[in-house]
Amino acid sequence: MVLRVAVVGGGAAGMSAASRVKRLLGDKAEVIVFERGNWVSFALCGTPYYVGFRVKRLEELLHYPLSEFTEKRGIRVKLGSEVVEIDADSRRLFYQEKGGGNGYYDYDYLVLATGARPRIPVAWREFLGYKNFFTLHSLDDAERIRSYVSDSGVKHVVIVGDGYISFELADNIQQLGRKVTIVGKHRYPLYKAFDDDMSSYILQLLEANGLTMRLGQPAETFEADSDKVTRVVLSSGDSIEADAFIVATGIEPETVLARKAGLRIGETGAIWVNEYLQTSSSEIYAVGDSVETVDIVTGRRVWAPLAPPANKMGYVAGSNIAGARIRFPGVARTSVTAAFGVFFASTGLTEREAIAMGYKVAAAKVEAYTKARYIDGGGKRIVIKLLADSSTGKLLGAQAIGDESAFWRINIVATLLMKGATVWDLFFNDIGYMPLTNPVWDPLTVAARLLLRQLGLSPD
Amino acid sequence: MVLRVAVVGGGAAGMSAASRVKRLLGDKAEVIVFERGNWVSFALCGTPYYVGFRVKRLEELLHYPLSEFTEKRGIRVKLGSEVVEIDADSRRLFYQEKGGGNGYYDYDYLVLATGARPRIPVAWREFLGYKNFFTLHSLDDAERIRSYVSDSGVKHVVIVGDGYISFELADNIQQLGRKVTIVGKHRYPLYKAFDDDMSSYILQLLEANGLTMRLGQPAETFEADSDKVTRVVLSSGDSIEADAFIVATGIEPETVLARKAGLRIGETGAIWVNEYLQTSSSEIYAVGDSVETVDIVTGRRVWAPLAPPANKMGYVAGSNIAGARIRFPGVARTSVTAAFGVFFASTGLTEREAIAMGYKVAAAKVEAYTKARYIDGGGKRIVIKLLADSSTGKLLGAQAIGDESAFWRINIVATLLMKGATVWDLFFNDIGYMPLTNPVWDPLTVAARLLLRQLGLSPD
Q1: Taking CA atoms, what residue in A is nearest to B49?
Q2: What do you get for the CA distance between the two ends of chain A, in Å?
Q3: What is the side-by-side order of every strand in the sheet holding A102-106?
Q4: Cα separation of A363 and A365, whole Å?
Q5: pTM for the whole structure
Q6: Contact residues for A431 (Cβ-Cβ < 8 A; gap 6+)
Q7: Residues of A in contact with B429 (CB under 8 A)
Q8: Whether A431 and B414 lie within 8 Å, measured CB to CB
Q9: pLDDT per residue over B331-380, tens digit each?
């Protein structure tokens, strides 16, 4: 008997699950992917680089061409097919096709990989009809933005939103010779992943690169003439005129289908799953940006829509459907962005979050050079902030700004967070050294030493 | 009463211990450093870059100028003073000064930081008198080598030895326009830290950069005319003519003083210390390249003379002398070198070592790109080899070759080794992702996935 597996959503997590089932079961499984859009396995994270022409063709943003899945891996893919209802009791899903047809499919297992959608105020939706007003949540969006902003008539682009994608877009659009203004509601950029003291460095760096920032004044609404949006109006009453507007005010989990199917929605508003990634209906798994998981640092449920865990969730769900019993352990919420050649990376809790959760927090901040002092003047500057629970010495999080090594140093802290490690573990961590890679007292080790002192765990 | 602390050896580990005692005890301690050479706190790792003129002045290789220690930190430093005997029972040391004087000092605590010395066959010592025959183990050696090989009469330099320093030197000497030949006894370079399958990549890379390698044929002896060494003779009978010869056949712990003082020498041949870094005489601590420590991966005693642990040992010993009780946990033996812009990094056991120790080893090797495929053609190539104990899934070690990110990825494995982690921990490790830093399935995660399959821990 052939196992019938349906996957709803052809993003990275969904295709990862589909591939895994086929790989493990081969002809013993029929795997069918329903994707309402035109692409599968696309790299949304790459779209800013498409806008800036660093990526030339849209097809390059596909992790794999469609034929890799259909021909090589034997997965059936239905593009332009939207699943509109799931009957969990009878294990049947209903779908509608763009062309107008519709149908149903009886599954043994289903994987929900519906992803996330842009979170845009209802009042702004009317502007989505204008040709110079954009969100960036699909390859088609990227195509529209690029073809519009690369037109020589566009001189000034406003990006609304102060998250990762805004700065990557801003960098790329400036490369096209356009002036860019970012409008954000928080006083400092990248609020979710960085404390204000760190974000203030980021702010300086971005401004030094010619980016205009209007922060602490959320966008209220827009003004438009007959065919174009002409200005964004801020809460302060100020308004900014521009030729194009991109709204990147965040995303939210796509849970409509899950709610309709009666699946449990977690405290975070994303789909609840157990550690095997099963929803409240045990034949339905859910993976990727639509589900919540566990924050390893706090043990709490968290919604952390990031690509690497999404892909690994696909691996886990697919394996489990094929008969394995693999647990997804959770995440440290490690994230990174880059603009103008500077990398901004973060893992675990910010100080702000940790305090809000009731932790007694000790913090240390180090400004240092990335290399031995006698090599190229010490390399680049790096700033690292390190946080620990002052009652236990357990690491809580870290943030870093600098060259690519800032990202890697944060990954080392993330590794320790995943293992529940302490500041001592970071201090004694045996990372390598040679003059071309780092100083013998790596900035990370120095940060740990400083934090030990803050904690009173070391004699001074 | 003032605590009297003597430090024998002014290298990084010794100065780290000295600084720590002074920092914690201030005027309550007298700290005196006996250094037989002319420098303290020098960065031997930087000497190849001095030879290649990437570092211009020798003084740049000092972590700190002498005055930082003497004036700012209040440490007494006796340069050109060699400690020749320690009477552990009466806590008295005897020293001789270069100028001819001698004296003794009564200590409450002593820190042995005698470091390591070049391991050079007895039969070759006669050649040390020749002006074109060198070892590289001090700043003065670096000065001699640079001034000799940068003379336009020198066309060809032979480096005997196939360890880290040889390749760093070779790179730098080639920068000066000299031909360089490396003579090594193993069939592949970097034998200690890399398995043959990985070293064969290194070999290709080095040869592609114009380096001549004569491997698998140890140097037997040298030939000389009246004032110069003229050729090295290999075990095969072949000989190679050159204008200068640098012997870098490794180092050994400097234990003469410790042995004379009756201190316990460990099974590795280095000075035995407990986890607080006390020798068998509890008022005598020992730190740095002359002591053995614990290999975290195997739990065995190991001699691992590397700069970061040496510095941390100084911190631990200094703190403990000042009244703390800090344990030095051991090392993963993480190491890295670079030549011609390629980085070679390693941590934990090699497959060869693991098999010799009786482990049942599973190995996975991945060749991949360092970035998202659509960014700059995927960035650079990287090769990662990952090892685990096939009975427990515990990580045993890793090796990587590539751009600087190869080094950082090895540090992530090192971090996991320090925590006794498994391949699953590496697979689920929450390292960050964005297109400019890595692929969404990082090569490290892919290596873990492959290794899970080897181990039979994952269903396929």
Answers
A1: A375
A2: 68
A3: A81-87, A92-97, A102-106
A4: 7
A5: 0.97
A6: A412, A438, A442, A444, A445, B308, B334, B411, B414, B415
A7: 414-415, 418
A8: yes
A9: 999 999 999 999 999 999 999 999 999 999 999 999 999 999 999 889 99
The model's pLDDT over A228-237, given as tens digits with 9 standing for 90+, comes to 999 999 999 9
Q: What is the pLDDT of residue A69?
A: 93
Q: Taking Cα atoms as reference points, which of B22, B8, B25 lies closest to residue B287?
A: B8
Q: Is B331 on the interface with A (CB under 8 A)?
A: yes
* CA distance linking residue B47 with residue B53, whole number of Å: 10
State yes or no: pLDDT of B41 exceeds 90. Answer: no
Taking only the tens place, the pLDDT of each residue in A355-406 is 999 999 999 999 999 999 999 889 999 999 999 999 999 999 999 999 999 9
Residues in A closer than 8 angstroms to B428, CB to CB, are 312, 328-329, 418
Determine which one of A3, A45, A84, A265 is catalytic: A45
pLDDT for res A41? 86
> How close B362 gets to chain A, by Cα (Å)?
20
The one-letter amino acid at B51: V
As a whole number of angstroms, the distance between CA A320 and CA A212 comes to 49
Contact B433 A45 (CB under 8 A): yes
Mean pLDDT calculated for residue range B176-205: 95
Strand B244-247 versus strand A156-160 pairing type? unpaired
A416 touches chain B (CB under 8 A): yes
Structure tokens at B335: 């190491």
Which token pair is B94? 């005897």
Cα–Cα–Cα angle for A344, A348, A353, rounded to 5 degrees: 100
Window 311-330 of A, Cβ < 8 Å to B: 311-312, 315, 319, 322-324, 326, 328-329
Nearest to B388 by CA among B415, B418, B354, B411: B354
How far from A237 is each of A217, A220, A242, A245, B201, CA to CA, in Å?
9, 9, 16, 18, 63
Which residue in A167, A164, A146 sits closest to A250, CA to CA?
A164
Instruction: Indicate the helix (H) or strand (E) that contains B426.
Output: helix B423-428
Q: What is the mean pLDDT of residues A163-176?
A: 96
Which residue is associated with the tokens 């002398």? B321
- Grouping H, G, I as helix, E, B as strand and the rest as coil, residue A43 is coil
Q: How far is CA A137 from each of CA A248, A252, A257, rounded to the nearest angstrom?
A: 9, 12, 19
DSSP assigned state of B327: P
In the numeric block, which tokens belong to residue B443? 């090569």
**What is the distance of C-alpha A257 from the center of its chain?**
22
pLDDT tens track for B276-317: 999 999 999 999 999 999 999 999 999 999 999 999 999 999
Average pLDDT over residues A188-197: 95
Write down the residue that tokens 């064969």 correspond to. B200
Phi/psi of residue B272, each to 5°? -75, 135
Is the pLDDT confidence value at B387 over 60?
A: yes
